Amino acid sequence: MQRKILVAYASRTGFTWGVAEAIGRTVSESGNVVDVRPMQNITDISEYQAVIAGSAIQGSKWLPEARQFIEKYKNTLSTKPFAAFLTCMTLAMPQANKYRTHVATWLDPICQMVQPVSVGTFAGGLDISKIPAWGDRVKFRLSVMLGVWKEGDHRDWQAIGQWAKGLIPQLVG
Questions:
Q1: Domain limits at 29?
Q2: What is the DSSP pairing of strand 82-88 with strand 61-62?
């Protein structure tokens, strides 16, 4: 059965947008109609039978517009299949797997508003030139110099695809 599914995202530097696009492509391959849209451009979600929402992490939280999106639509989201994901550089650090459980707790405020059928946690990417705040650029440059992480794209496309494929029965079942 074909369903209309929304993949909504919040991104600062484009890495989360890329993850949302990949999730959307995977979910659409099963015959669903999928819209991938930035959260700040969404004014109505009533036409969708399921929603996948994701955000980059800043300060151990989803971006403000992502939290606002969930708050605005939490009643509607609670009536349909909903999945959530995050992207963050913590998961690009050496030995990232030891942080994965802690990073997943950064979705707790979202899960308290709307219970997701699944949660995805993915490494993002770091392009210091795209970071808007000067102070944050300095912090990231220092972190790179100290070896906390490396600049570049750290997304694991296989893991993203597997998570998205696993969502399909939960969203359309």
A1: 4-125+153-172
A2: unpaired
Query: Has residue 54 been placed in a domain?
Result: yes
User: Can you state the angle between helices 157-172 and 15-28, rounded to 10 degrees?
Assistant: 50
Tokens for 153, please give them.
Answer: 């794209």
Is 116 among the domain residues? Answer: yes
Please enumerate in sequence order all residues whose Cβ is within 8 A of that of 64, keeping only pairs 6 or more positions apart, or say none. none
pLDDT tens, residue by residue, 97-124 = 888 889 999 999 999 999 999 999 999 9
pLDDT band at 131 (very low <50, low <70, confident <90, very high): confident
Q: How far apart are CA 31 and CA 19, in angstroms?
A: 19
9 in Cβ contact with 39 (< 8 Å): yes
The total of structural domains in the chain comes to 1
Would you say residue 24 lies in a domain? Answer: yes
Q: What is the DSSP letter of 55?
A: E
> pTM of the entire structure?
0.93
Within a domain: 148: no
